[in-house]
Design a protein that fits this description.
Jelly Rolls; 33% strand; binds calcium ion
Length: 268
């Protein structure tokens, strides 16, 4: 009898210690302003904020994503438009943007240095906040990732790693009001001391390109915007476990993650 009580005590203490270490809800889902998983075949926002996107100029949602379906961009004129909103404007001072990208190398440059870049996430049309991949007009820097804003000081920054190799890479841009940080595949690619706010009032958000230029060539998946600067561990959790799992949108067991899409969950 005493033995059983001791065993129960040990198990209770172990549980109290271990359960917090295995919490999957490391990211507060209330800080997710827009979440675009593409698994319903469209650009609906899974965050609950109604920041649904519109497919422009033939942009498609296709199979072959990093998780389920993905956004497909033609490198010519495709992009997604998300209309400005109060919730999107809540990212002015603190921000995280994340995306999986599978981008091809573009051909010869045309239209100067920047028009052939591959935009991932942009609050624009005045370059208020960008996560951008350099195109052929950038010469030897093609494929490197740029983050920044016309409103920040300093404005722009790009890291050493190229991502236009037609393989999946996870990108994240965080800003906490004092430092901008670019993560590639969960590791810091570059950071920089920075001041000012983004100034995103009235700015539409564009995914995969912008109206007129910087159109991506390839696939994007699991894109999201937060109004807080996520920590590196959060970004790695999102990369490894998927946005749906980390935000509590999908079951957390590995088997379910592999075999069940968000679309299936929603239909149940
Ligand atoms: Ca098109
Ligand atoms: Ca997906």
């Amino acid at each position: 009898m005493i033995k059983n009580w001791i065993m129960l005590l040990v198990l209770t203490v172990l549980g109290a210690v271990l359960i917090p270490l295995h919490s999957f809800a490391a990211v507060d889902s209330a800080t997710a302003i827009g979440v675009w998983l593409f698994d319903d075949g469209d650009v609906s926002d899974s965050s609950g904020n109604g920041n649904d996107g519109e497919l422009m100029n033939g942009a498609e949602v296709t199979d072959g994503g990093k998780w389920g379906m993905a956004l497909s961009l033609d490198g010519d004129d495709d992009y997604v438009n998300v209309a400005s909103s109060d919730t999107l404007e809540s990212t002015a001072a603190e921000y995280t943007g994340v995306a999986w990208v599978k981008l091809q190398r573009k051909g010869d440059p045309h239209g100067g240095c920047c028009n052939d870049d591959q935009m991932v996430i942009a609050f624009t049309t005045n370059w208020n906040n960008i996560l951008n991949v350099f195109g052929p007009g950038r010469g030897g820097n093609q494929g490197k990732v740029e983050v920044g804003s016309r409103e920040l000081n300093p404005r722009w920054l790009f890291g050493p790693t190229a991502v236009n190799d037609d393989a999946w890479h996870h990108l994240a841009f965080t800003y906490d009001g004092t430092k901008k940080i670019l993560y590639i595949d969960g590791e810091v690619d570059i950071d920089q001391d920075t001041t000012n706010d983004f100034g995103v009032t009235g700015a539409d958000v564009h995914l995969g390109g912008t109206p007129g230029n910087r159109i991506a060539l390839g696939l994007m998946d699991e894109m999201a915007i937060f109004n807080v600067p996520l920590e590196q561990a959060d970004i790695q959790n999102i990369m490894n476990d998927g946005l749906g799992s980390v935000l509590g949108l999908t079951p957390v067991t590995p088997l379910d993650r592999l075999t069940t899409t968000w679309a299936n969950i929603k239909s149940q």
